[in-house]
Amino acid sequence: MMDFSSVKRIVIKVGTSTLAHNTGNLNIRRVSKLIEVMSDLKNSGKDVIFVTSGAQGVGAAKAGLHSKPKEMPKKQACAAIGQCELMHIYDREFANYNHTVAQVLLTRDVISNKTRKENVINTFNTLLDMGIVPIINANDTVSIQELDFDENDTLSAIVAALCSADLLIILTDVDGLYDKNPKLPGAKLIPEVKQITSEMISSAKDKGSEFASGGMITKLEAATIAKEHGIPTVIINGQRPEILYDLFENKAVCTVFTADED
């Protein structure tokens, strides 16, 4: 099993199920604790890159809607409202620990354009050199696709590659990848995955939305992208943010996807 104690540059992706209550409003206690832990990890000498979801849900709640809208213009409007709210909270919470944040919003067309991609890489490197915490989200307000980055799981893997990260951590609402639906009797956690098989992908498709809107399938896709770039991925339960301490002490319950070796 991988030794996490010496990992330097980490990308932490947090999904809506971790950030928000079922109402769409932020889980303030959990968000505050998560930022406290990330700030402490940064204080220990790690580079922390934070990929967040939740803008649409938070925006819908702040706009007084009872659920996420289905119409694309309303989705984009809610994303704009929610992103402002998220960054306001993140900026305030990180400032409590004397850390400065920067917002980076991405779309696929930016990543696919060579010049723009280089600009993004330069921005990330400069921010990290300056000791800033980059906070990344999909730019849903101008996105031309229904799901530009699949609940940001794919985005987190792309960001990990762009930042030359040592580790991608995806926080979700289960302990990791199971051999079957974790709600079923006898389901077993898979602690280490060296190869993502077609059987795993097929099984993950059956698990549906119980892991929030992205599902486990998009997390496998993210792990595949990261693996191709030589970056290991951890899927871990984010309901208790302190579990990140356990991870870097090599005692966390999770699933580790090993990186491809050169």
From TrEMBL:
GO CC annotations on file: cytosol
Keywords attached to this entry: Amino-acid biosynthesis, ATP-binding, Cytoplasm, Kinase, Nucleotide-binding, Proline biosynthesis, Transferase
Principal place of residence: cytoplasm
Annotated positions binding substrate: S53, D140, N152
Keyword Nucleotide-binding: yes
EC number: 2.7.2.11
Subcellular location: Cytoplasm
Pathway recorded for this protein: Amino-acid biosynthesis; L-proline biosynthesis; L-glutamate 5-semialdehyde from L-glutamate: step 1/2
GO MF assignments: ATP binding; glutamate 5-kinase activity
Aspartate/glutamate/uridylate kinase domain mapped to chain residues: 8-237
CDD domains assigned to the protein according to its UniProt record, in alphabetical order: AAK_G5K_ProB
SUPFAM superfamilies reported in the protein's UniProt record: Carbamate kinase-like
Residues engaged in binding ATP: K13, T172, D173, S213, G214, G215, M216, I217, T218, K219
An annotated GO BP: L-proline biosynthetic process
Similarity-based family: Belongs to the glutamate 5-kinase family.
Annotated PANTHER family: GLUTAMATE 5-KINASE (PTHR43654), ISOPENTENYL PHOSPHATE KINASE (PTHR43654:SF1)
Protein name: Glutamate 5-kinase
